[in-house]
Write a structure and sequence with these properties.
Blueprint: H1 13-16, E1 21-25, H2 29-41, E2 45-49, H3 52-62, E3 66-70, H4 78-87, E4 95-100, H5 105-113, E5 118-121, H6 126-135, H7 137-140
Parallel strand pairs: 1-2, 1-3, 3-4, 4-5
């Protein structure tokens, strides 16, 4: 007797992380790889790039559920990258988390206006990012309602 595989909607939320990808965009390779290792240990598929331009090149083929991006990137800022991700109908539903060395009210407003979920202070704890993304997983499962 052959049975069809379960639909993604029937898989428990914790197991769905294995189906999800996170794109990490940071010019600081050591910080990016610490975060990447932590996210992989939680079951996420991870791709790391060092610039906004690289992120825009791979986002369509990698198809991440989330992007974690540093606000300070070479050539193009993380804010501009977030705006471009949110402006493109193909990537509008991707959850974006910004990370920054310094946080203040102006930065938080820029991040919010760019469509990011939040901004976290560096160094970023991979468990915190994982919990944040799992807590918002209901948004990841309803692409038409994601911002």
């Amino acid at each position: 007797m052959s049975s069809s595989p379960p639909s993604l909607s029937s898989i428990p939320m914790a197991a769905k992380a294995f189906q999800r990808g996170v794109l990490i965009v940071d010019h600081d390779a050591s910080a990016a790889y610490v975060l990447a290792d932590g996210m992989r240990s939680q079951g996420w598929r991870v791709k790391v790039v060092g610039s906004a331009e690289e992120a825009l090149e791979v986002i369509g083929s990698f198809r991440p559920a989330a992007v974690v991006l540093d606000l300070v990137l070479p050539f193009m800022s993380g804010i501009i990258l977030a705006c471009q991700i949110k402006a493109d109908p193909a990537t509008r539903g991707v959850s974006v988390v910004a990370v920054a060395d310094l946080l203040d009210g102006d930065t938080e407003k820029l991040v919010h206006d760019a469509g990011c979920m939040t901004c976290l202070k560096k160094p970023v704890d991979p468990d915190s990012v994982g919990h944040l993304l799992h807590a918002s997983a209901f948004e990841l499962d309803r692409p038409d309602e994601r911002r």
